Each structure stands twice: as C-alpha cells, then as structure tokens.
Amino acid sequence: MSNLNTKLSNNSYQRLLGKVAIVTGASSGIGRTTAKLFAQHGAKVVVAARREAELATLVAEIVADGGEAIAFAGDVQSEEFAKSLVALTVKSFGRLDIAFNNAGTLGEIGPTTEVSKNGWDETLSINLTSAFLGAKYQLPEMVKQGGGSIIFTSTFVGYSSAFPEFAAYAASKAGLIGLTQALAVEYGAKGVRVNAVLPGAVDTDMFREKNNTAESQAFLSGMHALKRVGKPEEIAQSVLYLASDDSSFVTGTASLVDGGLSINRT
Questions:
Q1: Rounded to a whole number, what is the largest CA-CA distance in the chain?
Q2: CA distance 31 to 247
Q3: Cβ atoms within 10 Å, residue 106
Q4: DSSP state of 238
Q5: What CATH number should be reported for the domain holding residue 163?
Q6: What is the pLDDT of residues 137-171, one digit of tens each?
Q7: Does residue 219 sit within a domain?
Q8: Are the CB atoms for 35 and 61 separated by under 8 Å?
Q9: Is residue 266, in this structure, part of any structural domain at all?
Q10: In whole angstroms, what is the distance from residue 116 CA to residue 133 CA?
Q11: What does the pLDDT read at residue 161?
C-alpha cells in the first residue's frame, strides 16, 4: 500500500489530476470506494447521498489522506437536489468534469403481479429518473467547458441475465443503458462521453443484507466464471477508467464488470 501511495503522490500516476467529480450514492459500497479512489487520483470530489453522517466521515477520510472533498446530503429523486448539487460543485471548485451517478436501490422485490404501483414508481424514480435529473444539470456545465464524462451504475440484471421477481429493478437498470446511449449520441459532438458500468454481484452492505446465508452467498458466487463475487474496489477501478482520459474514445457503452457472470454456464 505504501508503494501505491508513493505512486499516487506523483502527478504522473494521478489519472484525474485537476478534475472535479460528483459521486452520488457515496455513503457506502461502490460509491464510497469510488469517491476515495477519485480523490487518490487527484480529483476534487463532491460526495452526495441521503446519510449526512456517513458522508461527513467519508469527507474526513479523504481529507486525512490529502485529498479535497465536500459533502451534500439529500434525495437524488429531487430535481432541486440535482440542480443544487451541480451549483454547489461549480461554486466550490469552479467546474465539473466527471459525474458518477451511482445512487440506486433494489426496490420492491416479489412476484410481478404483486408489486405495488408505489414500489414500481419508487424503484424507477431512484434508479432511473434520478440519473436523468443528475445528467440534466451536469451536461450544461460539461458542455460549457468543452467536455466531460458521465457514468451511470446499471447492472447485468435485465441486460445479459435476469432473476424472477426483480421486474422493477431490471426495468429501471435496463433503462439506464438506453439513457446512456441516447446521451452519448446527443452530446458526443460537444465533448461529453456517457457510459454505464454493469457490475455483477459485489460484496457490499446491500449484497450481504439480501444474501445473509452461506448458501445464498455460495450460490451467487458460483454464478460467476471467477466463482466469487466482486469487491467494490474492482468496480471502482473500472469507473476510474471511464472517468479518466484513458477512455477518451469510449462512449455509449454498457461496460460489463461482472466476473464472467454473463457468459458463465457452469
């Protein structure tokens, strides 16, 4: 780890030096890990989620590691929140280069005929509409400065594989891929790249909450070609690639980071 820190302290290894990034869903899991990685690579980071205390802890950790970060707590379902988040970012750091719209939920799970209208609406609101609202206000700032990178967190569910009783989740996450492609085409000539990352099962609090037995965890691990679930750090590295200039010719992609789950049949 000390060698890694030494490398990251050298500007040649900081892939986001001088960049400003927004990360939503940053209080835990993939979002939290990605925010810290962005900061390690030189980005100034604005972290957003509903849980204010967790965001404060994250900012303190980033600052203690020599990075720059501020927090903004609120509900990603709110258009005013999306607008204010971008306004705060620009006011604080002068620009916006990267937006990782990562906030999400599994939503109401169960037989489709028993899923409530409220459960359906809330799942789409958190997973899909919030991403649209985020991009709605992020895009003008990126266009103003000549470009940027927007990344959405989708999933393999509803794309390459599916589970029964996950209709709302699958529909909302599949919708993100359509949104990714539409925005990539609409804003590519203006220098904004838009991509989606599609994780497999990842060892997060949400994963452990829904798979709280050794049997269920073993079952999901076995679905992957690598015979294990992913780590948040592994997904964060793929997001870092899409955020950085290393992916300067990559846009409109649904990037599977799923440990071979999509192709595994063993």
A1: 56
A2: 20
A3: 17
A4: H
A5: 3.40.50.720
A6: 999 999 999 999 999 999 999 899 888 999 999 99
A7: no
A8: no
A9: no
A10: 24
A11: 86
The total domain count for the chain is 1
- The predicted structure's pLDDT at residue 10: 47
State how far the alpha carbon of 69 is from the alpha carbons of 88, 102, 163, 198, in Å: 12, 17, 38, 26
Closest CA to 72 of 38, 39, 45: 45
Sign of CA dihedral 8, 85, 137, 126: positive
More confident residue, 208 or 41: 41
pLDDT band at 205 (very low <50, low <70, confident <90, very high): confident
Q: Is the pTM of this model over 0.90?
A: yes
What's the chain's length in residues? Answer: 266
Is 169 catalytic? The answer is yes
Tell me the DSSP string of 39-65.
HHTT-EEEEEES-HHHHHHHHHHHHHT
Residue 180 belongs to what domain range?
A: 2-202+232-257
Is residue 236 included in any domain, yes or no? yes
Average predicted confidence (pLDDT) for the chain: 93
Residue found by looking up tokens 């060698």 in the block: 3
Residue found under tokens 């790249």: 193
Helix, strand, or coil (residue 260) = coil
- Per residue in 123-162, is it b (16+ CB within 10 Å) or e — as a string? bbbbbbbbbbbbbebbbebbeeeebbbbbbbbbbbbbebe
Helix (H) or strand (E) holding 100: strand 98-101
CA 262 vs CA 154, 161, 235, 241, 258: distances in Å: 14, 6, 16, 21, 7
Which of 13, 137, 159, 169 is labelled catalytic? Answer: 169
Confirm whether 82 is domain-assigned. Answer: yes
Reading the block at residue 258, the tokens are 């799923």
State residue 239 phi and psi, 5-degree precision.
-65, -40
Q: What is the token pair recorded at 96?
A: 């916006």
Considering Cα of 34, then 39, then 42, then 43, what sign does the dihedral take? positive
